[in-house]
Each structure stands twice: as C-alpha cells, then as structure tokens.
Amino acid sequence: MARRAAGRFVGWFRPDRDSSKGTLQDQLYAAIRQAALQGELSAGERLPSSRALAADLGLGRNTVVAAIERLVAEGYLTSRRGAGLFVAADLPAEGVARAPAVGSPARPPILSRRSAAAPGLHAEGESDVSRPFALGAAALDAFPLETWRRLAVQTLRRRPADLLGYGDRRGLPALRRALATYLADSRGVVCSPETIVIVSGAQQALDLIARLLLDPGDAVVVEDPGYVGARDALASAGARLVPIAVDDQGLDPALLAAINPAPKLAMLTPSHQFPLGMTLPVARRLALLAEARARGIWIVEDDYDCEYRYGGPPLQSLQGLDGGERVLYVGTFSKVLFPGLRLGYVVLPAQLVDGFLRLKAAADGFSPGWPQTILAEFIAEGHLVQHIRRMRVLYRRRRMALLAAIQRHAGDLLLPRLSEAGLHVALEFRDGRDDRMAAAAAQAAGLVVAPLSRYAVARRLSGLLLGFAAFPEAELEAAVQRLARALR
Fold first, then answer.
1. Which residues are within 8 A (CB) of 93 and not within 5 positions of it... i.e. 6 or more apart?
2. CA 380 vs CA 138, 176, 186: distances in Å
3. Rounded to the nearest 5°, which phi and psi values hold at 346?
4. Residue where a domain stops, chosen among 327, 358, 378
5. Among 334, 359, 378, residue at a domain's last position
6. 93 CB neighbour count, 10 Å cutoff
7. Do 296 and 188 share a structural domain?
8. What is the DSSP letter of 349?
9. In a 10 Å sphere around its CB, with 0-12 CB exposed, 13-18 middle and 19+ buried, how is residue 449 labelled?
10. 397 and 369 share one domain
11. What stretch of H or E contains 268?
12. pLDDT tens, 262-274?
C-alpha cells in the first residue's frame, strides 16, 4: 500500500532544484500541505513512509523527514506508532485555506496610509555609540553605578510586591513629586505632580502629543533645521509640516505670525536648538508666547539636554514663562543619566492631562515601576544634582578639547558654530561641499558623524555634527586627526 501511495504522490509532485523556488524541504512541505488542504490528499489517507518518498522523489531522507516532522507539528499529518503517517482528519474544507504556491511571490503587506507615510526611525537612534563622534552618547563609564545598584537593592527589600504589579498611568507618585521640585528649582517650570506624566522616553511623549492634538492635515511649525525624531512623530500623525528657517537667535516670532491660517502647533528646542545649538533669547520667548496665546497655538518645548550649559545659568523655560497655559514641556533622562533607562516625562496644561493619559493607556498602559522607584530615590537623595554637576565639568573639558583639536587639524575646513550648551558641536564646511559624501568618507575612516543637511527641511546646509560627551580628550584628538585626513 505504501508503494502505491508513493507512486500516486510522485505523479503530481516534482521537486524543482532551482534555488529560487525554495529549499527542497520547503517545496515538499508546501506541496503536501496544499494537497491536504485542497483535498488532493483525502482526510485520513495514509502516506508513504519517509524512506519510500525519498527513494521515489530522489530526495535525501533527512530532507523528507524534516518536512514530515514540520507537517506533523503543525497538525496537517498525524503519526500512528506501527501504522504510519496519515492526513489529519480535521483539516478545513477545500477552499477555506490555501497554501501559497511554491515559488510564488508573497502578497505585499496591507498598511494604513498613515503608517506608510511615516518616515521611519530617526537617525540619532541608529548610530554606533562606541565610535567617535556618535550623537546622543553620554559618558556612561562616569555614571554612579554603585549608587544606583544600592538603591535598586534597597527598593526591592522594602516593597517588592508593589513593584511587581500594574503601575499608575501618570507614573510613580514619588517620582512625580521629586520631578516637580527638581524642575521648578532648575528650570523654573510651573507644575504639580498632577500635571506630570512619566513616559517611556521623550520620543513616546512626542508621539502621544502629536496624536492628542493633531488631526491629519493640521499645520505644524518645525524648526529648519530641526530634530528628525520630532518630525517623524508629527508626520506619523498626519501633520502638514511648515518649516521655518532659524537664524542665529533661533526661531523668529515674526515668521510664525506671518503664517495664515495659524498653525495648530509649533515644535521648538529653545534652550539648545537642535542641531545648530543657539539659545532663544528672552525677548523672542515672550513674543512667541504672546503669539501662541493670541492665535491659540500649542507649543511643544523639547528641553532635551538643558542641564548641560557651559556659559552661565540657563534661561527660564518657555513653560515657566507661560505659566503652563499653552506650552507642553518634554524632558528625558537619556542624556543626563543613561538611555537604557527608557524614562522621560511631559508637563502638560491641566486640561490636556486626561486625554494624554487615555492615549498613554492605549499605547503601553504604564511605564515600568521599578526603574521609577530607583530614580525617585536617586533624585530625592540629591544624586541627580550631584551627577549633573560632575558631568558638566567633564563635558566642558571634553568640548574644549574637541574645539581645540578641530582648530589645530581642520580649522581650514570646518567652522564651529558658537554654542555654550549641549553634548555635540555643529560645524559648517567653509567650502560648502556635499556633507553627505563627507560623512560617508568619515564613516569609512571608522568615525560616526552626522551630515548637517540631514536635519534640514527646505534650506541648504553643509556641515557636520560631532558628539563629544562619551569620548576622552586623547580619543577626541586622535579622532579629529582621522577626520581631517578623511576630508582632505
């Protein structure tokens, strides 16, 4: 019987040794599956042994056994000890499910218009942070890991049961209280624990804000050049981006006033404009806020690395000047502590909190509780402020080393833009060359540099962004020499 079954099977299956048709194992698996689903092999019908199939089809026995084992595991065949292999009796009727023909092209995925229009992950999150001059890389070796470990152990000892359950959508109350005090003291932010929501990084905050405030087609002002991650979040929500070129003082309020009808939202980095580095002066801050109140424009203030300013105290936040009426304030611990923490926060106008929390619940419910507990203790015991002070000294030294090395080895090629803040420097090519080709040359030399034009929307730029925070002075010196050789 097995021999007759094998002969019948050989009659309608022929292996194709063209590699583009898939492996022989995949072909055999797909052929038996399709035959069973379409009724060419009847429910309960006995199949030939693996030895007989291998001989008649000219296949290796291991190939046949692997295909059969897969079909048995997925329920298309059953194996009875001492009796052999049989087509399963409970397969769907013919036409209910059909296996794709071997070698046929897969059907393209069906995506929503919004997802298909999303630009994709912003480049800052894709670079190799171990190589100079990676953006977003902090000096993780200088992080007080022993202090963090001690607090982690303490929190587990005190209340492990609380840390294992579901958390508050707003975030841990103790962390929100600690943040409210810290933000008021360091940035002049006007907030209470009730208007702070803990999120899984600043990017989630931007994504939820976009979905909260924007309908497809709404106009949103973005800085040009500006942060790609923010543009990704806005475009994914269907926003119509309206770029405004920044000058040496940031975004000009008169250009915002000239946009008619009024945009729904403006996305700004006033403390340290990304990527060029200037700080928005007080006069412009006040004019922007007056324009926002008069025309009903929401402002998102991304204060991504406000802690690191090297030329005097930072200006009061836009949110603090506004009093929390029209400004949504976004912060993150990725730069000030470490990116693997995946915690950020947003300070919201009171009337937006409930809507934001509904979207947060739909996105991921709540942010992990144990890291929040450790972070709350870290802030309350004063470690955050101490760490920032130490890192500000370290980063100022590394920044000066980088600028000095550029002047020595590449001053004829690159002109640094003046900036007294942040963890990167922006440089412009003196000869206006193609900065993407220059970045590729640096990449070939083992460096990670970002072309300035990557962040532009409508204007033409030629330059590079170099991160310095994660790299000792000697490494920066050597890296600049390699960069200069690659650019010449």
1. none
2. 23, 11, 14
3. -135, 135
4. 378
5. 378
6. 10
7. yes
8. -
9. buried
10. no
11. strand 265-268
12. 999 999 999 999 9
